[in-house]
Amino acid sequence: MLRLGYAKPGSWGSFWAILTLVGLATRADRGPEPGCLFKLCCVPAAAQKADVGGEAAGTSINHSQMLLQRLQELLRQGNASDVVLRVQAAGTDEVRVFHAHRLLLGLHSELLRELLSNQSEVVLQEPRDCAAVFDKFIRYLYCGELTVLLAQAIPLHRLATKYGVASLQRGVADYMRALLAGGAGPAVGWYHYAVSTGDEALRESCLQFLAWNLSAVAGSAEWGAVSPELLAQLLPRSDLVLQDELELFHALEAWLGRARPPAAVAERALRAIRYPMIPPAQLFQLQARSAALARHGEAVADLLLQAYQFHAASPLHYAKFFDLNGSAFLPRNYLAPAWGAPWVINNPARDDRSTSFQTQLGPSGHDSGRRVTWNVLFSPRWLPVSLRPVYADAAGTALPAARPEDGRPRLVVTPASSGGDAAGVSFQKTVLVGARQHGRLLVRHAYSFHQSSEEAGDFLAHADLQRRNSEYLVENALHLHLIVKPVYHTLIRTPK
Question: pTM of the entire structure?
Answer without folding.
Answer: 0.77
